[in-house]
Specification:
By secondary structure, the protein is of the alpha+beta class. The chain contains 5 helices and 8 strands, in the order βββαααααβββββ. The model has no long low-confidence stretch (mean pLDDT 96).
């Protein structure tokens, strides 16, 4: 379901994901990537390269004419976007299991608005839960190319019968 309006998909049971493989599950609201967020991320991670935090130097020397967000800052929105695009009613706990392919095909300029579009790629059930892989496309307002495309893997556990 390709739309430009934010939406969420809700599932009653984790195993319902089997029927959603290959389908889009949701689209988030726009999120502004402010210079303050970029600076905070730089400080927390120690990645203080000038292209991220020095606005004057970036205006003068950067091919983008301004500061850009860290790719990993943008990628870190994957969990937030997942939480905003699908809900599974019988899950008691979910964890990030990891990532597969990640690419940053376009820079995220400071002040840009990004949102996440999630599609389910895989689902594998195990006793007490399941593991799933989403394709997360990080769209940027005003650009044709996404700023990030990632394969995000989650693992969820369901309520135990009492």
């Amino acid at each position: 379901m390709m739309t430009d309006k934010p939406y969420t998909t809700s599932f009653n049971h984790l195993t319902d994901l089997k029927d959603a493989i290959g389908k889009e599950l949701g689209l988030t609201e726009w999120n502004v990537i402010t210079q303050e967020k970029i600076n905070t991320f730089a400080e927390l991670t120690g990645d203080t390269q000038w292209i991220h935090i020095d606005e004057e130097k970036s205006k003068k020397y950067s091919p983008y004419g301004q500061t850009v967000a860290h790719g990993f800052l943008v990628l870190s929105f994957a969990a937030k976007f997942a939480n905003e695009t699908y809900q599974i009613n019988d899950v008691t706990m979910g964890v990030n299991y990891g990532l597969d392919k990640v690419r940053f095909p376009h820079p995220t300029l400071s002040g840009s608005k990004v949102r996440g579009r999630l599609s389910l790629m895989e689902f594998n059930e195990f006793d007490g839960g399941g593991r799933y892989k989403f394709k997360v496309v990080f769209e940027c307002q005003g650009t044709e190319k996404p700023v990030c495309v990632a394969e995000f893997i989650g693992q969820a556990y369901t309520k135990k019968d009492e």
